[in-house]
Amino acid sequence: MSPFSNPHLPAGALARTLERLTPLLSQITETTSLNELGRAILDVLKRNLEFNSTGFYFINQETGALELIHAEGLSPDERAAAEATALDRHPGWVIRNKTTWLSGNDPEPQMEFQKRLHLASRLYCPILFQGECVGTIGVVSDKENAFNTDHRAYLEFICRIVSITYENIVHMEALEKNRERMDQAIRSLKFGIWDWDLKKNVLIWDDFMYELYEISKGEFTGAYQAFEKTLHPDDVGRVEQELAETIRIRKDFKAEFRVVTPAGDVKRIAASARCTFGADGAVERLVGANWDVTEIREKEVQMLHISKMSSLGEMSAGIAHEINNPLAIILGKAQHLKLMLAKNNPPLDTVSKGVEVIEQTSNRIARIVKGLQIFSRDGNRDSYERKSIQEIIEDTVSFCHAKFRSHQTELKIDPVPEGLSIECQSTQISQVLLNLLNNAFDAVQELDERWVRVAVQDVGERVEIRVSDSGSGIPADVAKKILEPFFTTKEVGKGTGLGLSISLGIVKSHQGDFKLDRSQPHTTFVVTLPKRHAPQKA
After folding, report:
1. b/e map of 98-108 (b: 16 or more CB within 10 Å)?
2. pLDDT tens digit string along 437-485?
3. Distance CA 185, CA 175 (A)
4. pLDDT for res 310
């Protein structure tokens, strides 16, 4: 008796089986790792095939080895033997030939592993990705003629769904590697430290400051005027005013300016400093850091794109579901129609309804893909155009619904005032909204009550978008830093610390306001945007 005693799949029942399987395929398409994929495949196979054991093999892309990712019906020793000899047996033959192998249809050499287990029937199907075979799924039985051509078509259908899911898993792994590389780059930033004694007019630099400004210690006298000589002529007056204002109102100094190296190269330098005070309360010293932001500013558009991809990466499992679920429906319906059309006088009503389902689900995929194309492109240089707030929100949350549902987190979208629109770069505003939704989702995952709400208000000449969640607010010490670049409360590898600071920059460039509303009982971020965009003066 087979350990998996589900009924045999009778010939001619394939269409009904595929139609019944359609809702089950989400088990496969929602997986985010090969191990999860293997377990999901087994659950689906058990429902319609009778077998003693099954194996799910994938080629390790780094080593080239054929690995047994998931198996059922094998002892540990049998599993080890199966993996060690896979390339020399049916899995290897299927991968090399990129074709399905069904015992009784194809000649085979006698193999000790099968003989020892007395397995009379075997069925293996390749998993193809971009024209290459990346793995195989196999089922074996000790019964004669346990599998037929209907089973073959059934397993090939499953493998096509698996190949789509494999592409998403590869994509997510690539995004994760890119995030890790970016984190390493951020940690490698170097800072120059300086200490300015205002009373003595003595400016002390550490060694990296000289490297940063590309001058020798002998060329620097240690007075403020020596620093001033390095500044770009157009920035001298502004930096002097900002320093004077810092000293006058006794606040921290933050600035960005250009310097000209002895070789004539222009660098963009960021500076941050804290004040220390004398007995009379006046500022006596400024101690701070400088760092080179030239490349960051030159590649600001690229950084914005990376942040977009990071946001999409966080939603990728949901996006995969939103695309793959209708794809599974289309494949199932198409297979069903194909079998029906092979018969004489197929029922036209059923055929018409099947075609209608395919058309509707295709349109659903097209909308998601269009949204991805719009969001992924560089919208930094887009012109400001009037855009419906309702449309911006709908396009953005289309990436989020599946992820929120799968984690039992309610996403509430309050009704948007009819006809409300703004002049904006819509891809930029969509990114702000997606960043806030991502952050809110992460923040509530450990709570018993999990919800995120988006609400829009018409406030005269401006539009207010509020994103709140079921959290009880953000501590005051965190709230002070939360909009700073690279600040994050997430664990290493889970966030870049760029999302909110980039969102702030986007909103400011739209002449709007971006803030954390700490007066609310729940964590609430507020984005306020003008309905009309007034071009900035040069």
Report:
1. eebbbbeeeee
2. 988 998 898 999 999 999 999 999 999 999 999 998 888 888 777 766 5
3. 15
4. 60
CA distance 467 to 245: 35
Distance CA 42, CA 393 (A): 38
Only one residue has tokens 């377990």, namely: 39
What is the per-residue burial (b if ≥16 Cβ within 10 Å, else e) of 4-31? beeeebeeeebbebbeebbeebbbbbbb
Record the tokens describing residue 27, joined without a space: 């088990």
Q: pLDDT at position 1, please?
A: 34
Place of tokens 């006596």: 284
Task: Give tens-digit pLDDT for 321-338.
Answer: 567 667 777 887 788 788
Q: Which residue has the tokens 């995120």?
A: 452
**Confidence at 427, pLDDT banded by 50, 70, 90:** confident
CA separation, residue 256 to residues 231, 271, 272, 297 (Å):
11, 6, 9, 11
Residue 314 token pair? 């966080």
Looking at residue 4, what is its pLDDT?
A: 36
Q: CA 40 to CA 110: how far, in whole Å?
A: 31
User: What are the backbone angles phi and psi of residue 114, rounded to the nearest 5°?
Assistant: -70, -40
- How many residues in total does the chain contain? 538
CA dihedral 102, 108, 111, 115 (to 10 degrees): 60
Q: For residues 470 and 445, give the distance between their C-alpha atoms in angstroms, rounded to a whole number.
A: 10
- Residue pair 209/193 in contact (Cβ under 8 Å)? The answer is yes
| Residue whose tokens read 């005032």 | 417
Q: Token match 């059922």: residue?
A: 72
pLDDT in tens, 108-156: 644 444 444 455 788 999 999 888 898 899 888 888 888 888 888 888 8
Could you tell me the pTM of the whole model?
Answer: 0.40
Hey, which bits of 368-417 come out as E strands?
385-388, 410-413
> Distance between CA atoms of 344 and 66, rounded to whole angstroms?
45
Residue 472 and residue 392: Cα distance in Å, rounded? 28
Can you give the pLDDT at residue 523?
93
DSSP H or E stretch at residue 113: helix 112-117
Instruction: Using DSSP bridges, classify how beta strands 524-530 and 513-516 pair: parallel, antiparallel or unpaired.
Output: antiparallel
**Would you place residue 486 in the very low, low, confident or very high pLDDT band (cuts 50, 70, 90)?**
low
In 66-222, beta strands by DSSP E? 66-72, 101-102, 121-129, 132-141, 192-197, 202-205
The residue assigned the tokens 């994760």 is 176
